[in-house]
Amino acid sequence: MKHASKTRKQLQQQLEQAQDYEQWCEAATALDDLDGLLAWREQEETGMLHESLMRKHMGLMAHCRQNGDTRRLIRILQESLYRHLGELSNPDLYTVARSGTNRLVGEFLDAVETSMEFICDHPIPEVSTARKLKMFRDAERVYGRPALMLSGGAAFGIYHIGVTRALWRQDLLPDVMAGSSMGAIVAGAICTRNKQELADFFNHPERIHLNAFRWLGVAEGLRAGHAMDPRQLQEHVQHNLGSVSFKEAYEHSGRNLNISVSPTRTQQKPRLLNWLSSPAVLVDSAVMASCAVPGIFPPVTLRARDSDGGIDSSVPYMPTESWIDGSVHGDLPLMRMARLHNVNKTIVSQANPHVVPFISHHDQSGLSAWAKRAAVSLAHGQIATALKLTKQSPHPGIIRPLIEQAHAMTSQQYLGDINIHFSPRASLYRKVLSNPSPEDLEMFINLGEQATWPRLAMIKNQTRISRAFDRCIATLEEEAVQHKS
């Protein structure tokens, strides 16, 4: 018993001190073995899946592939995916073992991916390559794609670099990304870089410009109406992102960047800026607006590429409007992302200092975690209701804008389908509005990676079909081009 306890302690230390995903996975697998959870991963029946029907569908897929029956394979694939997607998305499948889920999940996804590639690579009678490409594009549109959303968080948001680097190293970084406040800086830095530039960004974080904050003096701050120098933030943003429009960023990187900004006028609605809705808007101006925390930085007028000028020219965009921190009204623009980009799976990296203490128990199980969720949900609902009633008061006074912002922050959703959250430490809160040192940068990045590793198995499985669609569509596009030439 003492030996087992010592081994457990050693493995737990290895898990917590892992320097990369491979080391973490090795320790997690050993701990699962010690707890008897590897046996659950090999178990025939889990109670969470329709095992017999899944195996029947897998057998039918294999039979169709062996007989070259692509038409029937398509029908079976459609039926099987529709039938089992809900079960495969069950987060409880990933709460039993640390190192992964039941093997049937992987076997079923193997069968689906193999079948998709078979349909892609083999002829279908009377179906041209162009028509097959349209079939795959239509199916991908129905199925949807994953998106990564990076919350605000001020200095805590550096943690998003670790989250995205962990995903990038496993080739799991989605092409659709959204960010607000500090999350907008990180998302912007990624989505304005091509593959080689992104590799340099992740492999050499020491090159990142770190000085975003410069406090104004008391007298200057009172005159200006904000506590920090926006020129310093502008220098930080342009050094790390450059100055390109959303359309130029998309054409250069191939990634869909989305940045949340909130209005200063109540008659305006929050905006999700991207290359579809605002192609000419400059990314750096959108990031500045999304970082404009009331009282910390001033509101921002967006700027756009001047169609009549050169590459360095710009003009005001909606010049009568000014915008502030995207976290105020839309930290995670879930519905707008789903409509614009056909998102079916949201991966959320949450680092907002006022949010993470209340969601750290969300992925835990047991009576204690349930009680915490119930208490937080009840308190959250009461606060949101009280603020809503106050906002509707016929005599709101001069604090009306503050009440509206507080209501917006308490009534919005801060969680997605898969959640990676910053682990709050009381000692770190003093750093939230200060420029990080190189040591702080490394620490926050490491925390982001360590928080992501336990989610990688779930992310890999739940985005696997989307990634298979991407590969098949790319293959068919190349074939279509060859046929034309």
Automatic annotation (TrEMBL):
Motif GXSXG in this chain: 179-183
Transmembrane region(s): 142-162
Source organism per UniProt: Marinobacter maroccanus
InterPro entries named in the record: Acyl_Trfase/lysoPLipase, NTE, PNPLA_dom, Triacylglycerol_lipase_N
PNPLA domain: residues covered: 148-338
Classification via Pfam families: DUF3336 (PF11815), Patatin (PF01734)
Active site, renumbered: 181, 325
Record carries keyword Glycoprotein: no
Designated name of the protein: DUF3336 domain-containing protein
GO-annotated molecular function: triacylglycerol lipase activity
